Amino acid sequence: MVGRYPDWNVLDEQEHWDETTRRVVLSRLHDVPERSFFDEREAATLTAFCDVLLAQDKEPRIPVLAYIDEKLAGGVGDGWQYYDLPGDGEVWKIVARGLDEEAQRNAFDSFAAAALELRTGIVHRFGQGELHGGAWESVNVARAFRVVVRYACQAFYSHPWAWTEIGFGGPAYPRGYGAFGAPHMGERESWEGNEAFHVDPVKDTQERGIE
Amino acid sequence: MTPSFLHKGSFAMPKDNDSPFLLDKHKRGLQNLHRMARYRDEDVVDLVVVGAGAGGGVLAQRLARKGWKVVVLEKGPFWDPDRDWVSDEKGAGQAGLYWTDNRIISGNDPIEMGKNNSGQGVGGSMTHFAGYTPRLHPSDFEVKTRDGVAVDWPLSYEDLKESFERVERELPVAGEDWPWGDPHTYTHNPHPISGAASVAWEGARRYGIEMRVGPVAITNGVFGNRPHCIYRGFCLEGCKVNAKASPLVTHFPDAIEFGCEIRAGCMVTRVELDDATGRASGVVYVQDGEEHLQRADAVAVCGYAIETPRLLLNSACRRHPDGLGNNSDQVGRYVMVQGATQVAARFQELLRMYKAPPPEVSSEQFYETDEDRGFARGFSIQTISPLPIGWAEHVAAEGHWGQSMREYMRDYNHWTVLGILAEFLPQPENRVTLGDEKDQNGMPIPHFNYNRCANDKAIVDYARGILTEIWDGAGAEDTLTIDRYAHLVGGARMGFSPDDSVVDSSQRVWGVENLFVVDGSVLPTQGSANPALAIMALADRCASLLDRKAA
């Protein structure tokens, strides 16, 4: 995953990280958890869902669902539950059921088997809270979307590949950061990546209609 | 005249707290644990403290120094930052820094908990607070008199002033001379500021808003054996440097030296009352699945705005059938959060907001009531710098996902964020109650209901507009807004009588003469200040009142 920093790979810096951090971060690369919370069908549906949600359209993909599965299997949530939603694990299972039902209404066997355009349309309506009937009747749909987006973002943006993509300098203990602020505006540490990007993304997203 | 120890850059240390010297220069964990006192459950200690956070930490240290036998019971772990903490957003949660036991949230404006406002472990939520430690303003203590809203405090700013100063020296707080509220100075110089904060500073200046660097409880210089901040940016994940203050490093090393025991992994489920005398006789706690009773001469509940009311309510007994301090149905009411809307702005320069502490510069220019604005009270403005997961939450809040989220995320290094802290007013229905469902210790799961009132909404709408105008004036190319809430106070407020409050001005629970609440839940109102300093200052004052009484 290369973003705008072609010479930058946060993993090149790992020898400068403290041992505890290095162990925790590198385990995300090497120890992808086995599925234990979702069944096979749920996992297929939700993997396809997370791919749409995070625009992961080709390999290598960050295996976000594996981390979500691991967290839900561990039974420790984030510390709150909306009065009109069940626990986070149950929310995810209801979402899997609801997504499949939407696909089936459009003559596909499952969400994973649906055409990309349909999948994207379903996720769009999910984000707007505009899915009704079947599984969706048991939850506040817009809030359920917030819950799953939170889990997906946490799984994705905790992965060092994503840090490399966005040019994040990553863990900096014990060496710290030194090049910042006046008179260092726009400067970088000797080891940080530089941006090589010639399209203004603000204009670009507007022109491509993907805002 | 300013006393000499208050001069900036002075390395004069607080006289009655050796914590910074009891730490090691190269190891972050506490070095005197091997000589920590151990009491037995059946020992009647002078004071048992429930919760090792901002309130409990200061209280325990003060009274241990005065010779009290103190036991602190803490639900979470005893941290060793070298071993337990990581430079990683997700890893901080996995390490257990946040209070993740379930809480049901409801109302028109349900408040998300966990990492946002609730901590566990020795040091409490301060282990993952950003570091801002502003003082309350004198006006905060009399908002009813001045502005006709909420309630006055049963004490004044002057009653807390010395405590503010004492705690600021111990943390220590770094910042510029402070022009707002009661003008004051800080012991450590202001930190250098990042590109992200300088853009905010310049934008505010052009708009006619003054900002100041700080105030943050982060060392800017060597402080005893605590090193200088290294600007790694992971304040909210636990400071691995020992530069950012929390009771773990600011008060417990000294408390241990004076015979205080901190017993981690102990969840207190009830305060026990002697039915004959009506006095608290100790607390029931669960450690490794086993129930214990720690006996004590006095009990201080320091569990914060959700757990303190929960514990008082769960301690119902014959004399107090609705819970301790709750004979007038006051426990759990008037919980407050602050409106913490953030507006992010995009600039052409690379700002890399992950560098330097997330809290850097702030303004209290809008803190006080201005009738022309159409609402009572006000807000403060502060910079914050989300790391990637926090930034993704910010982007998602405007409904972005898929390609558009990925693109905003790739643009991370061009963004900077200003946030507000808006003073929300106390309301009786914003409250903690006990639900029907029980947790692993057989204790009812708390239920927390929140609705903003019209004044709360008016402040946030106005403040959001100001932030957006600052960015427009600064030439931002794009902005992104997230409406959110921060901090928790109230729930066991102090007042003038049992009819309007849970504790009196000395933080004693009405109706139980040896039971105290020493945490943020006693705040009757909250101002637009981050609450950590006020909680510590109140604990400092409470400790001197208690010790005077005992003498």
Description of the molecule:
The complex is a heterodimer of chains A (211) and B (551). With 211 residues, chain A is mostly helical. Helices cover 46% and strands 1% of the residues of chain A. Chain A is built from eight helices and one strand; from the N terminus they run αααβααααα. Chain A has helices spanning 19-30, 40-53, 64-74, 88-105, 116-127, 141-156, 160-166, 201-207, and one strand at 81-82. The radius of gyration of chain A is 20 Å and the shape is globular. Chain B is α/β, with parallel strands linked by helices and 551 residues long. Chain B is 25% helix and 17% strand. In chain B, strand 1, helix 2 and strand 2 form a beta-alpha-beta unit. In chain B, helix 2 (54-65) runs parallel beside helix 14 (532-550), helix 6 (157-170) packs across helix 14 (532-550) and helix 7 packs across helix 13 (454-473). Residues 1-10 of chain B have low confidence and may be disordered. At the A-B interface, helix 1, strand 1, helix 5, helix 6 and helix 7 of A face helix 3, helix 4, strand 3, helix 7 and helix 11 of B.
